[in-house]
Every structure is written in structure tokens, then in C-alpha cells.
Amino acid sequence: MPLKIMKIAVDVTTTVQTQPNDQKFFHTTASLISGPTTYTIAVGDFETDTGAAATELPALGNNNSYFNVYVNGVLQMQDLSAYTAGTSPTGKLDLTVPDGDSIMANTPIVLEVVNFTPSANSTTET
Q1: Based on C-alpha coordinates, what's the Rg of the chain?
Q2: CA dihedral of residues 18, 78, 54, 39 (deg, nearest 10)
Q3: pLDDT tens by residue, 90-124
Q4: Is the alpha carbon torsion for 22, 60, 45, 71 positive or negative?
Q5: How open is the CA angle 30-32-37, to the nearest 5 degrees?
Q6: Which residues of 85-122 are buried (b: 16+ CB within 10 A; e: fewer)?
């Protein structure tokens, strides 16, 4: 009998699901902000979806998360913002207001943080 590779014959079915965890934080400017400047919003200056003061900005998961910043309902370019997760005094959003641009008083700024939680389930049949 000739030599042959011995291997296990297995049929595997894998189901992968990705669940988003979307958190939104709300802030309203108190006065006119004129560029060039960096406008910093500390974690305690944000409100949550329930209207309560935010106490922590969530960490961004590695390679499965993102954040968006909206000023007066308009999505902003990613390079205008720097996000730092954490509690006070660490957690904050730095928003760059370029030269010649401004943000009016009482303008809503919304920070949206999305983390994905992947899960997989495999079924093996022999």
C-alpha cells in the first residue's frame, strides 16, 4: 500500500455577528468661537442621551471603532478633531477651528462614539 497523508474530515460552519454599541454625547457652545483656535470640550461638559452629565468617554476598540463629530448637525472632517477617552480630567474632545471659521454661540456639538463587539459561533460536524 502506498504512503498517504492521514487527515481528519470535518465540516465546520461559522456564523459571525458584529453588534454596534453607539454612544452619543451632546454639548452646546456658550459663546462665539473664532479660529484659529482649538476648542476643548471636557467630559463633564457633555450630556448623555438621558440629559445627565457625562462622567466618562468610552475607549475606542482597536481596529473596530470610530467617532464622529457633528457641529450644528453637520458631520465634520476627521482631522479637525482629537478624541481622548476617559474620565475627568482626561476625557475630552479637541475641535480645531481653522483660521477664518467660527462656531456661533448656542451651537450644538454632538460626539458619536461607535464600538463594535464581534462574536463568532462555530458548529462542527464529523
Answers
A1: 23
A2: 180
A3: 999 999 999 999 999 999 999 999 999 988 999 98
A4: negative
A5: 105
A6: eeeeeebbbebbbeeeeebeeebebbbebbbeeeeeee
Q: Are the C-beta atoms of 53 and 47 separated by less than 8 Å?
A: yes
The 10s digit of each residue's pLDDT in 14-57 is 999 989 999 999 999 999 999 999 999 999 999 999 999 999 99
Contact, 88 vs 24, CB < 8 A? no
Domains of the chain, each with CATH number or no CATH: 11-125 (2.60.40)
Copy the grid coordinates of residue 76.
Answer: 465634520
